[in-house]
Amino acid sequence: MTAMKRIDSALEIVLEPAATATAAVIWLHGLGADGSDFVPIVPELGLPSDAGIRFIFPHAAVRPVTLNGGYPMRAWYDIRGLSADAPEDAAGLRAAAQRIDAYIAAQIAAGLPSTRIVLAGFSQGGAVALHCALRQPQPLAGVIALSTYLPRYAQAAAERHAASRALPVLLAHGRFDQIVAFKWGEDTHRELAALGCAVEWKAYPMQHEVCAEELADIAAWLRRRL
Questions:
Q1: Cut 0.85: pTM above it
Q2: Which residues form the catalytic set?
């Protein structure tokens, strides 16, 4: 991919393609990181120079996180525990999804079809991406969900929009993930399949991270979708 123009603001980092943008990837970082976390992977994807993909990396707001003793950090919503029965921050998740909804709406208003927009996210960012995509009133190109899980699964079937039927999802997880258990990834695979999503499931011999093989799979998936 040729050099892209980087635009930084207090809310996000945007990488604009050299040519006119014909697609967009909205990529959400994990807990405690910021939008710059995944910017360096864009050139590593080796996408064609004429792909015309705009990459948007929002920064989550800084908020106290219960899991980390109330210490303030960038987080899409509060994490109250890592056990399966830990209460979820439903209000925080909805607020995060509303913000991502606004990014999607802005891309559509700028002339991009919804079917040329991908949501991507790592860990907590992946959870927001999945939550948001299932409830979109227009079909998206798909979701890249890395080392993550599907939040509020019990409500997903009732809340999902008909437009998300057969939503394409690239779901990837490390077999030795010490933060978001591999079982959570396996469960999410089953849950998304049960919802009718077109899930491509990938597992790698890694921990809570991203590896070269995974980047190659992401690049191949993006080429197919966009």
A1: yes
A2: 123, 177, 208
